Input
Amino acid sequence: MPSLAKPFSIGLILCLSLWPFLTAADPYTAIIRQAGLIETGPNNLQIQARIDYRLSPTAKEALHKGVPLTWIVAIQIRKAGRILDTTLYSQERPYRIRFHALLNQYEVATRDNEGEMFLTLNAALNFMSNLHDSQPLAADLIQPGQRYYLAVKCRFDRESLPVPLRPFAYLDTQWFLSSDWTLWPIQK
Output
C-alpha cells in the first residue's frame, strides 16, 4: 500500500505558500472604518458608523449604464456570553445608488425611499458612508459591568440586480462588494 504522507505534505506546503495570495483583501469590498454608540440625550443612544464603499470597474460601468446598486447595512448589538453571544438589537438599513443619465446625477435612496441627488459619484458614496435615519435606542439596553459589542456588516445585494446580470455577479469577483462582520466593543 503506497504512503500518502509525501503527496499530502507537498499539497500542504503548496496550500500554505499560496495562502497569502488567496486571503488577500479584495480592493473592491466595503470596509467598516469606524462604528460606535453616542449619547444623544439623557436616555438615548444612537449608532454611528463610517463605511468606505469601493466600487470595482465592472460595478461602476453597470452603474453608469443605469443599473442601481444596493447594499444592506446590518447592525447588531451583542452581549458577550461565556459560550455564545446574545443579540439584543438587530436592524438592517438599505442604501441604493442609481445614476440618472439625463440629469447626469447620482441618487442615493435610503430605507424611507427618500432620494438625495449628488453631482459626483464620490459625493454620493460619501453620503452613503455615514449611517442615516438612525433611530435612537434606549440607554438602559446597555448595562454597566457587562461586555457588549456593536457588530456591523455591509452586504451587497446581488438579488436586486437585473436577472440577466445576477449569474455574473455570483461568479465574477468584481461583484464581491460586501464586507465581513466587524465587531466594535461598546464602553459604558
Q: What stands out?
A: Confidence is low (pLDDT under 50) at residues 14-24. Strands lie at 31-41, 44-52, 69-79, 86-100, 105-109, 115-118, 137-138, 148-156, 182-186. The longest strand covers residues 86-100. Residues 16 and 23 are 11 Å apart (CA to CA).
